[in-house]
Write a structure and sequence with these properties.
Layout lengths: L3 H22 L7 H9 L1 E6 L2 E2 L3 E3 L5 E2 L1 H17 L5 E6 L5 H6 L5 E3 L6 H4 L3 E2 L4 E3 L1 E6 L14 E5 L3 H13 L4 E5 L2 H9 L5 E5 H9 L7 E4 L6 E3 L2 E2 L4 H16 L2 H10 L2 E2 L4 E2 L6 H8 L7
Parallel strand pairs: 1-5, 1-6, 10-11, 10-12
Antiparallel strand pairs: 2-3, 3-4, 7-15, 8-14, 9-12, 9-13, 16-17
Pfam families: SBP_bac_3
InterPro entries: Bact_solute-bind_prot3, Solute-binding_3/MltF_N
Protein name: Solute-binding protein family 3/N-terminal domain-containing protein
C-alpha cells in the first residue's frame, strides 16, 4: 500500500531541487554583457555627433549638446538607478555617420545619441530603442537658386553624407528616373553644407530636420532653404548593442516613462521651439502629428 507521507515528502524535495536548479540557470534581471561592463567599470560611454543640429552636436564650449544627448543623459541616470550604482561616469565618444554603427557593434559605446534611422538593415547589427523623432529626406539649396525638385535638369551635383539612408534614396531616384546628376558622398554634414554654400554642389540631401538645424547655425541662414517633397520616412532612434535584453529593457522602459510622463515634450520644446546655441535662433518646429500619434503606442518595432 502506498505511503502518502513519503510521496508528499519526495515531491516537495524534488520541487525544491527543481527551483534551486532553475534559479541557478536563469539570468539575473539586471545581468548581461553590457550591464556587466558598465557595472564593473562604473562608466557608460555615449556616442555623439559633431554637427547633427539639434539632436547631437558640439556646443560653443566644445561639449556635446542636443535633444538626443539630453535624452541619453536621462537613460544613463535610469541605468544607474536600476543597477543601484552610487555613481556612474558618463564618457562621450564623437562619431561620424561612417563609423557610428561600428562604434556600437564593437562595444566602443553603449548608446549612440544622434540622428540615426531605425531600419531593418541596421537592426541586423545593432538594437534600437523607441524613436524620438520622425522625419524624411529633402533638399537644402541656395535660397535664390530656383531649385525645388531633385529631378530638375539644373541639378548637376548632389551632396549626400556617406552611410546614411538618404544616400540610398538618392541613388534609387537617380536610377529610376535616369537622372544625369553626380552624387558626391561626404564624410559629414558640415562638408556637404559647405559644398552648397561654395557652389560646389547644387543641393544637399538629408533629413529635413537636420537641414533646418544646420542652416540655422550658418553665418547667413537666410542664404539657404529646404525644398522638395519627402524622399524617405525616417524614424530616428538611439542605438544600443544587441545581445543584452536586460540593458535594452532599462532603456526602453525609461523611454516609455519619458513619453507617458510627457517629460520628453519639455526636452523637445527646448531644442526645437526655443533658441538654441550657437546663434540662439529657434527652429520653430513643433511636434509633428506623426510623432504624436507614434508616441500614443510607443514601440521600437518600426517598418
Amino acid at each position: 500500500m502506498p505511503q502518502p507521507s513519503l510521496s508528499v515528502s519526495l515531491r516537495t524535495a524534488l520541487t525544491a531541487l527543481a527551483f534551486v536548479f532553475s534559479a541557478g540557470l536563469a539570468p539575473a534581471a539586471d545581468a548581461g554583457p553590457v550591464i556587466d561592463q558598465i557595472r564593473s567599470q562604473g562608466r557608460i560611454v555615449i556616442a555623439h555627433r559633431e554637427s547633427s543640429v539639434p539632436f547631437s552636436y558640439v556646443g560653443p564650449d566644445k561639449r556635446p549638446i542636443g535633444y538626443a544627448v539630453d535624452i541619453c543623459r536621462r537613460l544613463a541616470a535610469a541605468v544607474q538607478a536600476k543597477l543601484g550604482l552610487p555613481g556612474l561616469q558618463i564618457d562621450f565618444l564623437q562619431v561620424t555617420p561612417a563609423n557610428r554603427i561600428d562604434a556600437i557593434e564593437t562595444g566602443k559605446a553603449h548608446l549612440e545619441c544622434g540622428s540615426t534611422t531605425n531600419n531593418a538593415a541596421r537592426r541586423e547589427k545593432v538594437a534600437f530603442t523607441i524613436p524620438h523623432f520622425i522625419t524624411g529626406a529633402r533638399m537644402l539649396v541656395k535660397a535664390g537658386s530656383g531649385l525645388e525638385r531633385i529631378d530638375q535638369p539644373e541639378i548637376k551635383r548632389v551632396a549626400v553624407t556617406r552611410n546614411t539612408t538618404p544616400l540610398g534614396a538618392v541613388r534609387r531616384i537617380k536610377a529610376e528616373r535616369g537622372l544625369r546628376m553626380e552624387i558626391v558622398e561626404t564624410e559629414d554634414h558640415e562638408k556637404a553644407i559647405q559644398m552648397v554654400e561654395r557652389g560646389e554642389a547644387d543641393a544637399f540631401v538629408m533629413d529635413d530636420v537636420l537641414l533646418y538645424g544646420l542652416a540655422s547655425v550658418r553665418p547667413d541662414p537666410a542664404a539657404l532653404k529646404v525644398v522638395g517633397r519627402f524622399m524617405t520616412t525616417e524614424p530616428l532612434a538611439i542605438m544600443l548593442p544587441k545581445g543584452d535584453a536586460a540593458f535594452k529593457k532599462i532603456v526602453d522602459d525609461e523611454m516609455r516613462r519619458l513619453i507617458f510622463s510627457r517629460e520628453i515634450h519639455g526636452i523637445y520644446q527646448q531644442w526645437f521651439e526655443q533658441a538654441i546655441p550657437p546663434n540662439n535662433v529657434p527652429l520653430n518646429l513643433p511636434i509633428s502629428y506623426l510623432l504624436r500619434d507614434f508616441w500614443k503606442f510607443p514601440t521600437d518595432q518600426v517598418p
